[in-house]
Specification:
Blueprint (H helix, E strand, L loop, with lengths): L1 H13 L5 H8 L60
Amino acid sequence: MGESLVRDFLSLTDDPHFDGARAIEMLQQRYTIDYGGRSAGGRPARLTDTYHPLFFLDIIIIVGRPMKPLTRTSDRFFDNVTLSFRY
């Protein structure tokens, strides 16, 4: 099942009509993990199971207001930026 998903993804991104708008749409799509979903090859968790979900941040997009600085004056940009993953 996993190999077909990879092939589908590669064929989508290699398409000559694949553009930036479609890439952003893919990044903003919500994904869920259903460990018990039988259609996804899962089963209900057992007491002996352990899960170690790992999430990697691959992209940061910082959007500011037009003609307004994002940060205070500093030699190092991210000294003045606070990131929150609360929402």
